[in-house]
Amino acid sequence: MGKIIIILLLLFASNDAFGLSVYKYDKYNIYTSSSKARMVNGDYIFPARSTTIKPAGGKSGFINRFDGEKWVIERDLRGKIYYDNDGGRFVTGRDGKVPPLVEFDIPFYKKKEVEKQRVEAEREKEVMKAIKSLLGAKLLSINRKYDKIISDIDSSLTTDDLDKVRED
Question: Which residue of 91, 96, 109, 120 has the lowest C-beta tally within 10 Å?
């Protein structure tokens, strides 16, 4: 019985069960688990993507992300659905990064409303473009008429008429 206890103690000591804690993170630097660093020939061997810095307490809906020096608590956005300003649908990946120019947390029941707003905005752009085009054509037409009137007046005026205008 005594030999079994000694063997068990040696096994615990070789695995360094009471050794240095390490905190592992994935390729996106998000905390995944903790374990103990192994000791080999008196040196600690750390798993890849791990640190001895303890993460902050976990809260529901948040993650710990290691920035290389410390753990940063961030909102957990992995797998969330987003809609861009044009109504395009995005789902965040394992890294939890949100694409740029994206509106956050539009519920599924508001998707029709968002699409309607997008269509209305697009229609408004088209209407404004048409108005600008019509105004441009109208201004061009008015300008041409103005130039013709001035030309007609200039050609019908005599030097006596100009002298009378100058005297007034």
Answer: 109
